Amino acid sequence: MPHRKLLVSSSLLAAALIPLAASAAGEYHFAPTEAGVTRFPDHAKQDPSRDRVVAELATAQKQPAWNNVSRGAPWPAARTGQPATREAVEAEAIKAMRAGTIPSGER
Fold it and tell me: Which intervals of the chain are annotated as region Disordered (predicted)?
């Protein structure tokens, strides 16, 4: 039973503190004054316009991976540089095995 009381009280405390943590990103911040809040107009979030959102969606839909991504698959990683040849990969693996940084697999 003592564990249950501790769990309930800690849950209530967390539920009471969540709104205070979330308010830090908004336009109004908690203040220990009679008003209770202080307004910071420069903290107001500027939402993108509808035209911008529609343009970004159209750009994303033109990507070759859109068909898979729209069904929940992650965006593929962007390729950088030239791909290594098979010989270069084999040479790098042999060099690493000789240096002992990866196991050689031969016993």
Answer: 66-86
**Sign of the dihedral defined by the CA atoms of residues 63, 67, 71, 73, in that order:** negative
- What CA–CA distance (Å, rounded) separates 75 from 33? 48
pTM: predicted TM-score of the whole model, two decimal places = 0.33
The number of helices, as runs of H, and strands, as runs of E, in the chain is 4, 2
Q: How far apart are CA 18 and CA 20, in angstroms?
A: 5
Six token digits for residue 74: 């992650």
pLDDT tens track for 32-46: 887 788 877 777 777
Q: Spell out the domain ranges in the chain.
A: 2-69
Residue 71 tokens, joined: 């069904």
The three-class DSSP label of residue 28 is strand
Quote the CA–CA distance of 105 and 107 in Å, as a whole number: 6
- Phi and psi (nearest 5°) for 29? -120, 145
